[in-house]
Amino acid sequence: MPKLNDTQLIILSAAVQRDNRSLHPFPHESKADAKIVGDLITRGFAEERETDDASAVSRVDGDIRFGIFATDAGLAAIGVCNDENAEVPTAAKPERQTKSAAVIALLKRDEGATLAELVAATDWLPHTTRAALTGLRKKGHAIERGKRDDDTCYRIPAVA
Questions:
Q1: pLDDT tier at 136 (50, 70, 90 boundaries)?
Q2: Which of 23, 35, 79, 139 is most buried when burial is the number of CB atoms within 10 A of its CB?
Q3: How many CB atoms lie within 10 A of CB 89?
Q4: For residues 112 and 106, what is the distance between their CA atoms, to the nearest angstrom?
Q5: 3-state secondary structure at position 103
Q6: What is the pTM of this model?
Q7: Under a CB-based contact definition with an 8 Å cutoff, are residues 57 and 67 in contact?
């Protein structure tokens, strides 16, 4: 059984009690509802679709009204299942791209990266970016320094 937090369990349980399986209206209002519902959709436990039911509307786009509804997988995730063979998706969360990983990716390019490129990619200040390069050296990355035009260029050489 997939791991759901208490709020997700409450929202899906309330949807089960409605004929249309709508997640709206929520049992309680919270600023975190959008994030919680987004996670349910990402994991396949809920889906957004067109609706004519005014009580189920979560957003309007022109003349089209959309609602968010529990899926069969969402019902199975809380132990409510009409089909014994229903499979609950176990979608892994996408790996988070860190700024350090972005720096390493830029440094591994054949042309490497200048300080200005690294600053632009990370939104760090130049001294913070230089400190990150020092940290990567301390972690064992061999960072070469060279010139590209008039700028200093840093790169991690490809391992043979």
A1: very high
A2: 23
A3: 13
A4: 6
A5: helix
A6: 0.50
A7: yes
* pLDDT above 70: residue 1: no
Alpha-carbon distance of 117 to 155, in angstroms, equals 12
CA distances from 84 to 3, 74, 76, 117, 133 (A): 20, 14, 9, 54, 54
Calculate the alpha carbon distances from 18 to 38, 76, 134 in Å.
20, 16, 57
Can you read off the two tokens belonging to residue 146? Answer: 């060279």
The H-assigned helical ranges of the chain are 6-16, 33-42, 72-77, 99-107, 115-122, 126-138
- ω into residue 25 within 30 of 0, thus cis? yes
**Residues near 129 by Cβ (< 8 Å), separated by ≥ 6?**
103, 115, 118, 119, 122
